[in-house]
Amino acid sequence: MNFRILAKFLGALLLLESLAMAACGAFAWFDTVAGDEVARDSLFLSAAVVALGGILLMVCGIGKIDRIPRREGIVVVGLGWILCAFAGSLPYVLGEPRLHWAPAFFESASGFSTTGSSVLSGDPNEALNIASWPRGILMWRSVTQWLGGMGILVLFVAILSYLGMGSKSLFRNESSFQTGEVSTARIRDTALILWKVYVCITAICAIGLKAMGLTSYNAISHAFTVVSTGGFSPHNESVGYYSNWGNGWLIEFWLSLFMVICSISFLVWVVLMRKRWKRLRNEEEGRFFILICLGSTLLMAFGVAESQGIPFATALRQCWFTVTSIVSTTGFGTVDYTLWPGYVMVIIAMLMLLGGCSGSTAGGIKVSRLIVFLKTARFEIVKAFRPNQVFRMHVNGNPLDAGERSQTLLFMALYTFILVVSCLLVALLEVGNGMDMMSAFGAVIATLSNIGPGFGEVGPSSNFGHLMPATQVFLALLMILGRLELYALLVLFVPSLWKHY
Q: What InterPro entries does its record include (predicted)?
């Protein structure tokens, strides 16, 4: 392991994060709302500490580096996300009202991983409710999700394109983008284009929200968290704050539209910019995703309308927003879905596991893997009575060989194994608090799939603040594990990775 390379790139990553912190500190400086003086000081102090740490690491890594080897690249990704989450917790620790280090790390990891789970309460009667925090800190909370949505390391790759350094390993390990659709020589250019598209979509979303009556602060905050499919909101009631507005339905529809857009691979928008219309016709994953959203909404709406005694149109509105929020792993809330019929809860749990499309800001197993699984299952069933039949499998127009199919099935099996073991571990850690298995399952699936709200004690009307510090740290690591799609974090625990060469 070349530790000089690690030090240099991790140091540069911290410097990039310190700039984002300083920008939020500048916002707090010019913000006229009372209380942001403390936020300003804590953000600037945090930025200085993080920048100092970054400079020290870069000094340790002084030397010419032409490329990032594959092994160092995956370590930079795994350690980089943990380090960013740890550094990002400083404003919560230094600001008022203060958080202890464990819940602060949880909140920061939830931001960067775009999970949206929170230790902050939505109850205005509790001390640590969301509205009690100054706007500068809440803006940092939204910015962490925006940076984590596309991937802070994808931004890093875009910057590296000007430094002439190899960055393919960072791009491949940090994101779920299908790099087979992008030539190696254009990886860095693609990273830059992805961020341009990301910024443009964010601006359009914010402008639309502003036109619908939101303040500039709320429009920008929600645009950051909806485009990143993160789900943080500066209101205790989340998006439910706007549900009773005269145009509340329009605000919900606008947000759900962008949740769907950002749950489809951003490479689709890139290739459309390049007028490659054939790629759009081959977008099998995106079409399947939209059909899942529409089908789930209709199936749920009938049961919700009957059980809640509300008009079908109202049930349809509530279910559409809930489905798009859950399957995109955004986690915005307008209603408490735990009060809905049992079969609806099963559908919601399945949507939580599924998530969005590969190459999007959404979490979960990803729709492309479900398609591969279904096609492989059909192949094996037909093979049972037609052993000599030849199958050609494609997803989004790309051929799949036996190795890629086996990797997909292995990922789904490993994901399920981690889910089950984590449920047992969380239940064990919280045995003193009397947590039931449904709540433990809800906590794990909400964090591993980067959803936000779960079930039971961590449902949409609750939070994660009452959990033990050890549980909060473990769940924070699960968020990063899910965001990096397992391997980039699990590989850090392989002893042979750290051998010197």
A: Cat_transpt, TrkH
